[in-house]
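Lab notebook page, bench 4
Experiment: in silico fold of construct C2
Operator: M.H.
Input chain length: 256 residues
Purpose: comparison with the prior construct
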Amino acid sequence: MSGTSELTRKVVLSFLAHPDDAEILCGGTLTLLAKRGWEVHIATATPGDCGSATQDAQTISKIRRGEGAAAAAVIGATYHCLEEQDVHVVFDKPTINKAIDLFRTINPTLVLTHPRFDYMLDHEQVHLLAREAAFAFAIPNASPMPLPTDARVPYLYYVDPLEGIDPYSGAVVEPTTVIDISGVMDTKEKMLASHVSQREWLRAHHGMDEYIDAMKRHGEMRGKDVSGGGVAYGEAFRQHLGHAFAHDDLLVSELA
């Protein structure tokens, strides 16, 4: 794939497992890209149907789809959902096809997704779906859906696992890229606060605003890793550097 000097389309897709994952893990970076004129799409594999201890799956799914759309609207982004089920996300033919068709619909030039190893298997399965779709969606025979004439393998980055910890080793994950989001933390907080059902559940459970506070603690941790000296808040990524994917650091060139 060609480098950033030949990038003519600026479309970013955050493809993560659940509503609120993007706002927690890459909302600041999406905000910065939106401010620089990028077209932003936030997609989830599920509508968050297991995200309540008191409401049935259909009810909480409707609520959380609305919250996902509201959070995306804060930065002028578009929300999408594959309509898979929480704790039942799998890397199989039907779901791969849905992911490829999502990518064809959006035709992203930059994709942000989960890392290979994370605390929850839904995240790991979405990682596989995103890798497959990123590599395959521009292959003509990969889908009967019309292929955009300018489709090509996008830049691919992995967000942090929960708390930045590899769940198998317990070690802190070393990022390839850390973005300073200090100037847009208020917007990131507003996006995350749009997920009212989850925020209020944790407020009731913890007796504090843990939903927002945990996000800020992680941002503070990653802010220390920003190149050139620590900053207030950061978001960390590992860039996918496999065959057919670009190796120049697009996030740094766009946001540094």
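Observations: Residues 9-244 form a domain with the Rossmann fold fold (CATH 3.40.50.10320). The beta strands are 11-16, 39-44, 78-81, 110-113, 155-159, 177-180, 234-239.
Next step: discuss at group meeting.
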